[in-house]
Structure formats: structure tokens, C-alpha cells
């Protein structure tokens, strides 16, 4: 069996979909194009030597059907046949997956590309609207996700297809706006001489922001991790509470910038591991007020809806949506898709 690059979006079912992060990997099987029920398996990457071992120990050991194709979402760019994870020891090798698991096709996408693919199918309890605005059908959407870092991607509708546009939007710069910001920003540690949005609007950024807030209040910092900040806020700790208020306003400003940049009349969606832990700060008004405060375009921003994604596994849902109906999407597979090619001369006759 030889390996060749796979350039089409047609998948042989069952399809394994996977959201592979630095800490956890999430797997699910899509049995056919009508299968809407995902039953994810979540496992720590550190518990397995590699992704093949993880799939065997979780998905295949559970009695799930043997997958014929796989679509993976990973944090970071896909630049070759070896794709190392940023925060874990795994190296994703599609050719090895094909050989060891007997797959026909493997596609590897960016994690926020997968998040974007989910947006058209998120309905009902999977999303909660924050503030006003009305979503326009088949209009551009944007997803922004504070997790370990700050992920971002757009989803554009053109020529009858949804086109995901991943990028590094989380690294745009963010400055002080309000009088309160002016007292905090001088205390924020620079990285490479600048303050990027991810440096404060993420799980890794929360302690950095908390240190700056504490300094602006003349207090000693005592929040070493994002979990420390969110837990302390639940006890009405003044530094943690102000940190999350500043965080929500900053996230609103960045979300509003992206909404204007791509004219996201289809809505801006908040996802990521941090958002469900600080949802009350996002819903209480500060986020939406900052989102709309874009003079001279306040009326435009008021018309664009914002949503908190409540779906527990939106990246898996996006990959599953792509597997079920690949013709609904236009996904660039160049250098990011592989298929098994059997040598017909080696097959037995008769």
C-alpha cells in the first residue's frame, strides 16, 4: 500500500473525527451521512504514547465500528507529513495512521477551522445569544475562543459553500481605552515589546492580567493560574473580580474589531475552555457594551449578534458536519490530506 495526497472532500464511512489538544484528545465516530449523534471519548494525551495508541485504547476498545477515514483538528499549522503538537509529546503522522489503522483517508485541519465549520449547525441550546442583533442567513460568521491561547477564525459564504478562514487573529495588539485601562496597562508584562490580545485574553494570559490589576490597586498578586483567578472571583475577591471584568471588556473590543473587519453579519461566536468558566462576566453587559462601542459604527455593531457557544464539543461537531456533507464546504486540502493507494498489480487474481 502506497500513500498519495488526497485532494477531494469525499470520505469513506465510518469517519473518525478527533480534536487533539495539548492536554486532551477527543474522539468520535460518524457512522454515515445521516448520523447526527456524537458520543465523544475524551482522554489525556499524556496517558498514551501516540495518537494511534490512544485511538486503539479508547475508540476501538469501546466496540465502536472500525473507521475508514479520519478528520483531525490540531492546534497549529499543518506544514508536512509530521505534525508535532505544541504542548504535548505527540507527533501526528497521517501516513502512519493510514498504515496502522487501515484507513483510506486522513485529513488534518487547524483546530479553529474545525470550530468555524460547526457554526452553521449550532442551534437551540448549543448557543446562547448575548445582547441584541439579528443573524443574517448565509452571512459571514466569526469565532473567537479564549482557551490556553486565543483562537480565531472566520467562516465566509460564497458560491453556495461555506469557506473556513483560519488565522492567527488572537495575536492582534490590544491597548488601553477606558480610564481604568489606563491605570492597568502600564503594569502588563510585554512579550516581545508588545501586548497582544492572547497575552491577556486567554487561560495563560489571565494570571498576567491579574498581576497587572493587583499592581494597579497597590496589592500583591496571589493568582498563579487561570483557575486561581476564576475560583477567587467566585468568592468575590476584588482583584479576580476586576480582572474578569477587564477581561470581558477586552474580549468584547477584540470581537468587535473582527466583526467590523469581516462584516460578520452572521454573528460572532465565543468558544474555548475559558468562556464557560466566566460566562456571567460575559453576559452581564460589559462584553456587549465594549463590542458595540466602535464609533462611528455603533449602529452596525448593534445589528451584529454575539453568541456564547454552549455545545460541549464544537470542534468535533464541525468536523462531523464536514464529514456528513463535504459539498457544503470549500476546505483547502492542499498538503493537509492523505489517502491510501493500493497497488493493483500486487492484488491476487481471480
Key descriptive features of the protein:
globular; Nucleotidyltransferase, domain 5; seven-stranded mixed beta sheet; Hexokinase, domain 1; 15 strands; 350 residues; six-stranded mixed beta sheet; alpha/beta
Describe the secondary-structure layout.
Elements: E1 2-5, E2 15-20, E3 24-30, E4 41-44, H1 51-57, E5 69-74, E6 83-84, E7 91-92, H2 94-101, E8 105-110, H3 111-118, E9 127-130, E10 141-146, E11 150-158, E12 161-166, H4 179-184, H5 205-216, H6 226-234, H7 238-262, E13 268-270, H8 279-283, H9 286-292, H10 298-303, E14 306-309, H11 314-324, E15 337-341
Parallel strand pairs: 2-5, 5-8, 10-13, 13-14
Antiparallel strand pairs: 1-15, 2-3, 3-4, 6-7, 8-15, 9-14, 10-11, 11-12
Helix pairs in contact: 3-11, 5-7, 6-7, 7-9
Q: Could you describe the 3D structure shown?
A:
With 350 residues, this protein is α/β, with parallel strands linked by helices. Helix content is 30%, strand content 21%. The strands form 3 sheets. It has a 7-stranded mixed sheet, sandwiched between helices. A 6-stranded mixed sheet has the order 9-14-13-10-11-12. Strands 6-7 form a two-stranded antiparallel ribbon. Strand 6 and strand 7 form a beta hairpin. The protein is globular and about 65 Å long.
Amino acid at each position: 500500500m502506497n500513500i498519495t495526497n488526497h485532494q477531494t472532500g469525499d470520505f469513506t464511512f465510518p469517519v473518525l473525527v478527533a480534536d487533539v489538544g495539548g492536554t486532551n484528545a477527543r474522539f468520535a465516530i460518524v457512522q454515515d451521512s445521516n448520523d447526527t449523534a456524537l458520543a465523544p471519548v475524551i482522554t489525556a494525551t499524556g496517558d498514551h504514547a501516540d495518537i494511534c495508541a490512544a485511538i486503539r485504547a479508547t475508540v476501538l476498545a469501546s466496540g465502536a465500528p472500525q473507521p475508514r477515514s479520519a478528520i483531525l483538528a490540531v492546534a497549529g499549522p499543518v506544514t508536512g507529513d509530521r505534525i508535532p503538537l505544541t504542548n504535548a509529546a505527540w507527533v501526528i503522522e497521517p501516513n502512519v495512521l493510514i498504515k496502522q489503522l487501515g484507513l483510506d483517508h486522513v485529513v488534518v485541519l487547524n483546530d479553529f477551522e474545525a470550530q468555524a465549520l460547526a457554526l452553521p449547525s449550532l442551534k437551540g441550546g448549543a448557543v446562547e445569544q448575548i445582547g441584541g442583533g439579528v443573524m443574517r442567513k448565509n452571512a459571514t460568521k466569526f469565532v473567537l475562543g479564549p482557551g490556553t491561547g486565543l483562537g480565531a477564525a472566520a467562516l465566509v459564504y460564497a458560491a453556495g459553500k461555506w469557506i473556513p478562514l483560519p488565522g492567527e487573529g488572537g495575536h492582534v495588539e490590544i491597548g488601553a481605552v477606558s480610564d481604568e485601562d489606563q491605570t492597568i496597562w502600564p503594569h502588563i508584562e510585554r512579550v516581545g515589546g508588545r501586548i497582544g490580545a492572547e497575552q491577556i485574553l486567554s487561560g495563560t494570559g489571565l494570571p498576567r492580567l491579574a498581576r497587572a490589576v493587583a499592581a494597579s490597586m497597590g496589592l500583591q498578586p496571589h493568582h498563579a493560574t487561570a483557575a486561581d483567578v476564576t475560583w477567587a472571583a467566585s468568592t468575590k475577591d476584588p482583584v479576580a473580580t476586576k480582572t474578569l471584568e477587564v477581561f470581558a471588556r477586552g474580549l468584547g473590543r477584540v470581537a468587535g474589531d473582527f466583526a467590523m473587519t469581516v462584516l460578520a453579519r452572521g454573528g460572532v461566536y465565543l468558544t474555548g475552555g475559558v468562556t464557560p468558566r466566566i460566562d456571567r462576566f460575559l453576559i452581564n453587559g460589559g462584553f456587549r457594551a465594549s463590542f458595540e462601542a466602535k464609533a462611528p459604527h455603533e449602529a452596525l455593531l448593534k445589528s451584529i449578534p454575539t453568541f456564547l457557544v454552549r455545545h460541549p464539543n464544537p470542534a468535533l461537531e464541525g468536523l462531523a458536519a464536514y464529514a456528513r456533507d463535504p459539498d457544503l464546504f470549500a476546505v483547502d486540502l492542499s498538503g493537509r490530506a492523505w489517502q491510501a493507494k493500493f497497488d493493483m498489480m500486487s492484488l491476487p487474481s481471480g
